[in-house]
Amino acid sequence: MEFRDNKAIYLQIAEYVCEHILLEKWKAEEKLPSVRELAVELEVNPNTVMRTYELLQNKSIINNKRGIGFFVSDDAIEHVKSYRKALFMDDELPVVFRNIYLLNIGFDELKSKYETFVKENFNA
Fold it and tell me: Does the keyword Oxidoreductase apply (predicted)?
């Protein structure tokens, strides 16, 4: 995983974990890699991974089974979508809207580009 400078590493790791859950690489009730395992895999400090897991636990995306480890919660996908949607709406969408306004891009053009994107990337 390559980290970007514009966002805290623990938040980028949270995106990584959330993406794995959304793609169902890690399914409901499945055990996550331990804090140390993920830290070694991502080449970060274990405290950083612990901070990520605490954030995701607070968002009800993962659960800590004391002495066993962290697990994906039953309704993790819904919680991930809610969490990621809020981040997108608050952080990314204003930038997109600004660019749409500055570049004078019409909604018809956006709709066409969006439909093409979905067709090429998700309608296999």
Answer: no
Residue 51 lies inside a defined structural domain of this protein: yes
Q: Each residue of 76-118: pLDDT tens digit?
A: 999 999 999 999 999 999 999 999 999 999 999 999 999 999 9
Domain count, the chain: 1
Domain that residue 39 falls in: 9-76
The per-residue pLDDT for 6 is: 85
Are 28 and 73 contacting, i.e. CB atoms less than 8 angstroms apart?
A: yes
120 three-state secondary structure: helix
Domain assignment present for residue 108? The answer is no
The span from the CA of 46 to the CA of 34, in Å, is 10
The tens digit of pLDDT for each residue in 62-78 reads 999 999 999 999 999 99
CATH number, domain containing residue 21: 1.10.10.10
Give which of 115, 37, 25, 112 is closest to 70, Cα–Cα. Answer: 37
Can you give the pLDDT at residue 124?
A: 55
Is residue 117 included in any domain, yes or no? Answer: no
The distance from CA 118 to its chain's CA centroid, rounded to whole angstroms, is: 19
